[in-house]
Amino acid sequence: MDDPSVPKLLFSSLALDPLILRAIEETGYTEPTPIQAQAIPHVIAGRDLMAMAQTGTGKTAAFTLPMLQRLLPHASTSASPARHPIRALVLAPTRELAIQVHESVVTYSKNVPLRTTVVYGGTDIKAQKPALMNGVEILVATPGRLLDHVESRNLQLNQVQILILDEADRMLDMGFMPDLKRILALLPKQRQTLLFSATFSDDIKKLAQDFLIDPITVETARRNAAGENIKQSVCMVDHQDKFHALVELIRSRGVKQVLIFTRTKLTAAHVSKQLERSGIAADAIHGDKTQQERIKALDAFKSGAVMALVATDVAARGLDIDQLPLVINYELPTHAEDYVHRIGRTGRAGASGEAVSLVDGEEERRLVEIEKILNRKFPREAAVVPSGYQKHFKSPPVRSHKHAPADDWFSKPYEPSASKKHDEEQQSSPLAVHGKPQQQVAALFRIRNSQI
Ligand code: AMP
Asked: In the β-sheet with 49-52, what is the strand arrangement from edge to edge?
């Protein structure tokens, strides 16, 4: 995260209260990330802010820490709900992101008597009511559920001093504009507004124009989007060979954790199931899973019980997983900007990471779109597919999964026993660029076995 244009700073020089500094120290951060160094002083000074920052840049702390600093004069140990009106509202597009932002607020505010809670859809609304009725200074919410609570008169927004829109571009993509307008109409005009977005599209600029006053603009995402600390590559593969190329890729890297992206829920579920059948502990998170199932899958992934997490774009928004070494795009995203969000899961906060995209002929159009927004061109490498699994040596017609016959590549598990022959062949193959010794492959399967 070193950016020569940003002078090195210490958290202690950022005018944060010792109680907040202590919480930062306890998390183990040594210095602010560029977005934090740039945003925190302005937010403490009360300015509106428009920040271009994607997940992985430290953006959550960039708004949470100065928000806490500004709310500190209102911190109170009083039991009276009236002493705890909502003073800061953080809006996030998805439940996952809302939960993770809330967790960060809890972490950074642990030494100060400021209350916080989170509300999101898909769970029992009644269970969220008591925390609201008791009073909270900081509310993290998804827009739809927030409005449900407004309608049920479970909360009031007329004392909000700070509004934070996190991943605003995603909120617009997900069609939250009408909800946002309704919410904004309920807030005091005199307030501070912070807008965080991975991209500055015309729609985002318009949103900022309408709702921010003379904002400071900070931009740090480009460096990360260009992937200086993320090794990005593109492997071309026939559609029918994709699954086996995926398994080969995972095996060859010998990593303990991999996040795999698909475009559809169906593919996410299939890929996860097939990985399990191939001996790789996997789970999927997508829109058809309940909140409980998603949390369970995420926890299993974080703890290492599950090695491969297969996710759709929406389900993966805001996932905060430290030190994720590898992201694989099993399918390229529909929206090119999502590519940036996806690869931002690796190479976080300065760590190095790798992102590999498995691209078939039908997806080249999408790849070109991604290259346009990144302003770079990827060399097209050939994916490694074990020879026993190659269905097509020449470009085949592309089939969709649902038309594939039952005995096709997708339902044929990858058997580790086939790997020996494959490894031998790899050594003489010009395609064997990602070959790893047999011991690493064995280690991979030991990980799996020790975890079930
Ligand atoms: P975010 O961009 O908010 O999703 O944060 C990405 C990751 O960076 C999270 O795991 C944070 O815990 C971590 N992080 C945030 N600030 C710092 C910092 N100053 N130093 C090291 N890690 C950080």
From this structure: 116-119, 138-141, 88-91, 162-165, 192-197, 49-52, 216-219
Least confident of 133-137, 157-161, 439-443: 439-443
Determine whether the shortest distance from the Cβ of 322 to ligand 1 is under 6 A: yes
Query: Ligand 1, atom 17: nearest CA belongs to which residue?
Result: 58
pTM above 0.85, yes or no: no
What pLDDT, in 10s, does the model give residues 300-338? 998 889 999 999 987 776 566 666 889 999 999 988 878
pLDDT over 70 at 161, yes or no = yes
Q: Which two tokens stand for residue 66?
A: 């100065």
Residue nearest to atom 12 of ligand 1 (CA): 58
Q: Decide whether any atom of ligand 1 lies within 6 Å of the 374 Cβ.
A: no
Say how many residues make up the chain.
Answer: 452
The 3-class secondary structure across the chain, one letter per residue, is: CCCCCCCCCCHHHCCCCHHHHHHHHHHCCCCCCHHHHHHHHHHHCCCCEEEECCCCCCHHHHHHHHHHHHHHHHCCCCCCHHHCCCCEEEECCCHHHHHHHHHHHHHHCCCCCCCEEEECCCCCHHHHHHHHHHCCCEEEECHHHHHHHHHCCCCCCCCCCEEEECCHHHHHHCCCHHHHHHHHHHCCCCCEEEEEECCCCHHHHHHHHHHCCCCEEEECHHHHHHCCCEEEEEEECCHHHHHHHHHHHHHHHCCCCEEEEECCHHHHHHHHHHHHHCCCCEEEECCCCCHHHHHHHHHHHHHCCCCEEEEEHHHHCCCCCCCCCEEEECCCCCCHHHHHHHHCCCCHHHCCEEEEEEECHHHHHHHHHHHHHHCCCCCEEECCCCHHHCCCCCCCCCCCHHHCCCCCHHHCCCCHHHHHHHHHHHHHCCCCCCCCCHHHHHHHHHHHHHHC
Residue 29 pLDDT level (bands cut at 50, 70, 90): confident
Burial class (CB in 10 A: 0-12, 13-18, 19+), 378: middle
Output the average pLDDT for the chain. Answer: 81
Write the residue with the smallest CA distance to atom 11 of ligand 1.
58
Residue 52 bridge partners (DSSP)? 197, 219
Residue with the nearest Cα to atom 5 of ligand 1? Answer: 58
Of 12, 21, 320, which is best to mutate to test ligand 1, by the most ligand atoms within 8 angstroms of its C-beta? 320
Q: How far is the CA of 348 from the centre of ligand 1 (A)?
A: 7
Instruction: Measure the CA–CA gap between 130 and 126, rounded to whole angstroms.
Output: 8
Q: Is the pLDDT of residue 435 over 50?
A: no
